[in-house]
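Model: You mentioned two targets. I'll fold them one after the other.
Researcher: Yes, keep them separate.
Model: Target one:
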Amino acid sequence: METNELIKKWADKVIASNNAKYIYDFSASMNGEISDEVVQKLTEAIVKTYSSFYDSNEKNKYIYDFISDIDGVSFDYIIERFGDTIPIEFFINTAENFPNAPIDKISDIIIKRGNYSDIVQFIQKCENVPTDNLIAAFMEKPDNEYALFYMGKIECMSYFVNHNIGDINIFTDYIIKNGKDAEIFEFIKECNKLLNEEMINKLVDALMTADDDNSYVSDLRYSQDQHGKYAYILELADKKIGDIGKYFDIIINSHDAKNIIELARITKWDNLPIIFTSLVHAVEKFDNLDDINMMASVVDSCRDNSLKFMLLDKISNTLAQYDDQSKLSFSKHQLADSISYFIRTYNFLNDNIVNKLLELNQTMKIVEVGIYFCYCSNSSQLVNYIEKCAKAVVNSGNIEAMYNFLINSKGYAINILMDGIMSSKNVFYIDNAQKYLDENNISYNTSQQLAYDFMEFMLDEQNQDKTVGEATLEFNKSNGKKVKKLTKK
């Protein structure tokens, strides 16, 4: 039997094995000694072993080694024989690994058979591809929203734009017509440096009317309190992408205080006093004390001190002008609590807000603010306010509040508070208050009050027949004090 016949028979057995390594080893050992006809049969056999499974790379390696090493292997034959059957990725890998591969023919296969992701991979991996034809085909391919292993179509467009592939205007128009809000947001964010202002504005308009897609929301900085479209707008504003004036209109029209507060938080550093001030005023219109105090915290962190002072003054007056009878969403206690929080947190007060607090007659909140004034570094300048608070607490008749205010007063308004405690005739609080004063070396003149009390005692009908001595003894016994001290200077 002739050598050629033996080689053919041997080749047939090798081909029948369907083993890529066996086929490659045989072909490599006989390289240059087998005919083109046998090479084609071996080529066909080894290509058929191609597998797309993730664990098949080692086996597929022999196919590419075969194409690279064996004489007589024809790309044209492979394309002609397998162009309609072998997985697209085989041709993409072939074009990537072999500079002499027929790019145009492989491109035609991918355009004909591949999905949009195949086209993107081909463009990404291979050089000198016919981009125009491929992008045109890409635009016509349907999006696969359920694809788990490759980028969405609009995400691919972001790649094209950032790599200067294709027409940005065509991509933008497609996204405006077809994108969901999250996809539009991602496109703006990823491509903003290459988008002009008109494009961004159109994309933002489209984002606000597009179908909802919350797939990105969990990654957003502002997603905890703001959701969906407004979270995207706040994120763009924070990244300084697009027109802040446009975002202002969108957020104001959301009629959501949390959105407005967050935009204010973003713009406070940007030297935009008009927008910042407008956002503050917008929140003041909401009947929500928590929102007003939250906006106050934003104002308090503003670097522009004159603007901060002006806006805190405006907020304080807003709190002071609340009409409790017409506002049904909160109680007097809630308003007093908000005023107390505002004064203590932002160290800001004026006559209006203090008078409002006193008007609400919420004793414990008045004590809270009064004690705060006593502990301020400039307490001596606040004596008038401290005394107003002390008088309001005494007028309430709440002996516990008077005592609490007294022992935390640091010596301010002592006479007012002690007069109230003494008037209560409550021996327990009188005794403890006096002990506090003694332990802290704080003086208090009790003579006047005791004198008034003794006169009232003497004028009582049942005591009028008693001598001064008898009345003094009984008064001392009932009050725990010595009347003889009344006359001491």
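Model: Target two:
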Amino acid sequence: MNYSEPEWAKYITEESIDNEELQTLVSIVGFEATKKIMLHYAGRDFFIPKTSLMKYKHQYILDNYDGTKRSRLKLVRACGITEGYIFKIMKKYNGKNAL
């Protein structure tokens, strides 16, 4: 995407950003990316559903569960799930990939 900033955008500095959500974004993706998002998406709301991560967690479980209690406990900690959920995922995919 070819993108040029308006002349007035030079007044947007990392120090001048006083919005908590934008400061969080700066800490995650950096100032320049945050500035581009501000300029291109001002006025829009973003919502990232938790379910958008599930297929990746499912694949991680499928790739790393070896049937042992130890691997279940590691997956529970890594994914923030229960052991019962691991069994549910294994049953759901029955040897197939999630992705």
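Researcher: Noted. Anything on target two?
Model: Helices lie at 20-29, 31-41, 54-64, 69-79, 83-93.
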